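Regression check, calcium ion case 184:
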Amino acid sequence: MGGKPTPPPPLPKGAPQGLKVQYQAGDPGQPCDQYIVPKIRIVNTDAKADAPVKGLIVRYWFAPDTTQPQNWFGAPIDNNNWTVGIYTPTASVPGADIAIAFNASVTTTEVIRANGGASVPLSVIWCKPGSAVHTCPSNSEPFDEYNDYSYNPFMTSYTDWDRVTLYWKDDQGVERLIWGTEPG
Ligand SMILES: [Ca+2]
Ligand SMILES: [Ca+2]
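Current build output:
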C-alpha cells in the first residue's frame, strides 16, 4: 500500500516500441443489453519507427455472467490480417473470466505508421448464446458489462486504456505483454 508505483518493465528486445491501445465503448449507454461491442485501435507513438502488425494480440477482458457458449457476429475486422476469437486464461479473476482476442497474422507485412499512426479499427459485436457464428439469436440473454474488467462506459471516443492488453509474439512464439495491465 502506498509508495511509488512500480515502473513498467522495459519492453522486450525486438518488440515494437511505443505502441498503445485506445478504446471506446461501441454501444454507449447499453451496458445491460445483449451485446458487447468494444472498439479498439493500436496507436504507434514512436517518432520514427513504423511498427509491424505481425504477431500482435489484443485482449478485451470480461465476465460473461453465464456458462452459456459465447458467440459473435458481423465482420469482426475489415482487414484480412486480423482474426477474432475467445481467449480463456488458466486462472480467471472476477470480471475477467475470458477475453475477446484480436490476433494479427503472423505473416503479414502490414505496419502501423510512426508518429501517431493507428491500426485498423478492431471491433466485433459479441453476444450469447449461439450455435452458429455470424448470428445472435433473439433469445440471447443480456450481459452485465458493469463488472467487466475492460469495459468503460465513459470512453465514447478513442481513449488510452490500460485495461485492454496488447501482446507481441517474439521469434520463438512467446507472448510478451507490451501494453496495459492484466487482470488479477
Ligand atoms: Ca452492450
Ligand atoms: Ca459481465
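Comparison notes: The radius of gyration is 16 Å. The chain is about 0% helix and 35% strand. No diff flagged against the previous build.
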